[in-house]
Amino acid sequence: MKRLLFLAPILLSGATLPQKLAPVADLPATARRTAMAAPTAQPVARSLGPQGTTAVDDVVTAANAFIATLSATQQATLLQEFNSTTVTKWTNLPVNATNRIGLRLDALTAAQQTAALAVVQAATGTTANDGFNEIQQIRAADDNLAANGGGSTYGSGVYLIAFLGTPSTTGTWMLQFGGHHLATNITYGNGAVTGATPKFEGVEPLSFTTTNSNVLPAGNTYAPMSNEASTMLAMLNGLTTAQKTTAKLSQTFNDVVLGPNGNGQFPTTKVGMPVSSLTADQQALVVAAMKPWVQDSDDATAAALLSTYTNQLASTYIAYSGTGNFTTEGDYVRIDGPNVWIEFACQGGIVYRNQIHYHTVWRDHARDYGGNFYTTVTGTKAAAASQIFSVYPNPSSPDKALHVQLTSAAKVATYTLRNVLGQLVTTKSFKGNAVEVSIASLKAGTYLLSLEVDGNAPVTHRFVVQ
Length: 466
Hints:
The protein is α+β, with helices and mostly antiparallel strands. Helices cover 23% and strands 26% of the residues.
């Protein structure tokens, strides 16, 4: 029996949830060398609450139980403000003293660690190889890296948990849990999940056999992101030769575009193959490719979001770069819809240098951080940007610098220039009320200039180079 039964619906920004999801082909994950065993070093499964209990009730109950195990000093570190700065304190890089907030697992007692992981388990999905089970596998992969030359920056204990705002079923707050290759950001509002993204997942090595039981049983083989890889590969392999030509991008990608620094920077132009032109079977493969990411959220949220994304297929695009086989550094694929944004990228190995490893990110145009701060559905928000700064001339030409004029002087500001695919061109910090941006190297086309002023959320202007 699923542990989540009576659950609060996700806020769907006005979208209605169909009575029944459209049928979707469930693709089997890549076969594992050893059958997956249930994790041992994790909280025990909780019994269902009384009728009417919601998923958010369970998360809040677990959160308060964890808080009760902590000292006043630990509580002060765990409980942070919910604002545009704290929500972005996540990354895929190994943990250091400044790139994350909250309490480290390895600084907690065994009982406190169990209570912390109970919160994460209550907030994430129950599907095998996704959700909480996949989180545990990613942590175990870090133990493998530590044991094979990675050093002390890796390990299942080098993960942090933070609550932004006060856990409750009435207010707004967020659960952050992450470490190397993992960032879980789930936002709650008035007793419902309002956003399950951004969610970053990566893994190195791609598969491994555990040699200790810190997180998972020793002697078992795991491939944490085999679901993601196999369904994305099936989606691309389902295309005809002509469709692959349309879907293939000329650019190369050495990482995901909208990683930790990509907040609100969704490309304004969708590229690749429109899903509306695919057959019903091919569209089912697109939906199946989204599932492993969406299923990382709690089961009810996952069902609601997958229904929304399925209903938006007519305006969704898929694109890829590289070989399309996910065997080579630079292989890349994305799904970009009115709401959904998923990227899958292959990088060279860091500890296992003769192998590739995966980086992926799931974002939502409308629901990142619960629809607060860095979210845009229609692309850039020119009206909001115009209150902060202007750019001229627009259109411009490479022989002229782009002038940026702020409405008021900034103590510290950073501009970021990207192309319409979301790829970074340049970024620079400055102060004052004006700056010139060199565009001498830019080819003709549309570009996005984002400005972050004095720690506030970035705003973006679009401009054209002729």
